[in-house]
Design a protein that fits this description.
This protein is α+β, with helices and mostly antiparallel strands. It contains three helices and four strands, in the order ββαβαβα. The protein has helices at 18-37, 59-62, 81-93, and strands at 6-9, 14-17, 42-48, 69-78. Strands 1, 2, 3 and 4 form a four-stranded antiparallel β-sheet that branches. The mean pLDDT is 80.
């Protein structure tokens, strides 16, 4: 991955129990497939299960992590900012990701 790529966080770090994180992973795999079908270069989901609390700030502190929870975070890599904007516009229109409110 070169410096010319654009990286976009998808959502914000969040806390979840291991059980919830598996359900989240299944949903995330579906979302990642859709983003890649629309030309995103990578879709990465991260589970931080051993991150230490920082002295001033950290992922565990940012989500008010409780015992038995892990931090979930994702990001997407695009060819460029323009490509990011195009891909995200297409993804918003994609039927598999439309959620009824």
């Amino acid at each position: 991955m070169g410096l010319s790529h654009a990286v976009n966080p998808r959502g914000f770090p969040r806390a979840a129990t291991w059980m919830v994180s598996w359900a989240y992973r299944r949903m995330s795999q579906k979302a990642g497939k859709v983003w890649r079908e629309h030309s995103a270069l990578e879709y990465v989901e991260c589970v931080a299960d051993d991150v230490k609390r920082g002295k001033w700030t950290s992922y565990p502190q940012s989500v008010k992590l409780k015992r038995g929870e892990v931090v979930l975070f994702s990001f997407i890599v695009y060819k460029s900012r323009a490509d990011r904007d195009r891909v995200n516009t297409e993804v918003r229109k994609d039927k598999p990701l439309v959620v009824d409110a």
